[in-house]
Amino acid sequence: MTSDTGLSKWTDQNNRIEFDLQQNMFDPERIIPLADLYINLDAVLREDMLCHYSGAVPAMYWIALCRNPDYGHIQLVDLVDRSFPLIVRALRANVTNLTSLSLVSLGPGDGDIDIKILRHLEEGFDVPSYCCMDFSFELLRYAVARVSKAEELKNDFRIQAIWGDFAVSNGILNREECPRLFALTGFTLGNYNEADLLGNINQLMTGHDFLLVDAHLHNLKDCSSQYPDLEQEMTQMLSGYSQEETNRFVFGPVEAITTASSSDVIFDRKVNRDMTSVPNALNVTISCKDLRTRMRFANGLIERDHLDLATTTFYSYEDLRKWFPIAGFDCVWQKQEGSVALFLLKRSVHAGNR
To answer: Are 134 and 263 within one domain?
Structure first.
């Protein structure tokens, strides 16, 4: 069934869960056809990391990485959980007589953070609905299954799951009478050019909505390549990325289209500013050396001395906080704990209201 919002719909029997398909996920002008994608090594190593999360094997690699206590996801879930009473206080301080609040999750991942957020929202507000959007159908249905069955939730709110790309989409969310809390968590901000991503999210929101964002931090005051502590700081920043689960995850798209595995190559990393638009932010790119393999479907020989696999971004806390107004957001609450920051944002007045 297709609606007038450009979504194909499926609804469960009790009308609680609605799965929607964003039509332009298959726009031939934007999307590389599947057959072409999986015979081109460079095409699967997209900057937006779509192929790192899409498909059963990459999705399972991501879930396994989240469960690794050295990676930092478990600590992030705990930080969000502990910080949410303060976030609720900030929400109430910014909206008079706030009684209802819906959650819109942009990339729900394994669902852990969303379950914690929803539990806190249910304690203080009426929660009419939960909407989650992801371009990985495997992670989307995994998160929906976990949220819909979570024992700590009341489980009476509507669930809208959208298989789509929040980095390029507009006008595809169900309208809500109450304010919405958008959540961009799991360090997703660092996988994109921040100005482009937040500019699009700004268009999805109204003047009554809020956006919760997390970010990885570095401690450098000077991010120039000549700074003597850069290499030491980079090693510290990436300490949670130096394990087998990380290697399997970042190598996942290569494994999907070649006969190689992560144990066949040597991993490396470099620091640059090729993707970020935030002052004093650092892109850290994980790469591999000495790839010698064959394409899984085309059987062509692949020999690469160097191949960039994935990029994430680390931020200066103060520089990121001061940059948000440039992207059209005001920061109404913030918190730093160790190498992680949380920000509660609201659309700037000059961004306009819809």
So the answer is: no
In this structure, of 161-170, 171-180, 325-334, the range with the lowest mean pLDDT score is: 171-180
The more confidently predicted of residues 125 and 155 is 125
Same-domain status, 169 and 257: no
**Helix/strand/coil (H, E, C) string of the chain?**
CECCCCEEEEECCCCCEEEEEEHHHHCCCCCCCHHHHCCCHHHHCCCCCHHHHCCHHHHHHHHHHHHCCCCCHHHHHHHHHHHHHHHHHHHHHHCCCCCECEEEEECCCCCHHHHHHHHHHHHHCECCEEEEEECCHHHHHHHHHHHHHCCCCCCCCEEEEEECCCCCCCCCCCCCCCCEEEEECCCHHHHCCHHHHHHHHHHHCCCCCEEEEEEEECCCCCCCCCCCCHHHHHHHHCHHHCCHHHHHHHHHHHHHHECCCHHHCEEEEEEECCCCCCCCCEEEEEEEEEEEEEECCCCCEEEEEEEEEEEEEEECHHHHHHHHHHHCEEEEEEEEECCEEEEEEEECHHHCCC
**174-188, 213-227, 249-263: the lowest-pLDDT one:** 213-227
In a domain, 323, yes or no: yes
Same domain assignment for residues 121 and 184: yes
191: containing domain: 7-29+72-217+317-351
Asked, for residue 227, whether it belongs to a domain, the answer is no
pLDDT digits (tens, 9 = 90+) for 35-56: 667 778 888 898 888 889 988 8
Q: Is residue 88 part of a domain?
A: yes
Q: Model-level pTM?
A: 0.90
Question: In this structure, are 110 and 255 located in the same domain?
Answer: no
13 and 49 inside one domain: no
Domain count, the chain: 2
Read off the CATH number of the domain in which 321 is found.
Answer: 3.40.50.150
Q: Does a structural domain hold residue 291?
A: yes
Q: Which pLDDT does position 29 carry in this prediction? A: 56
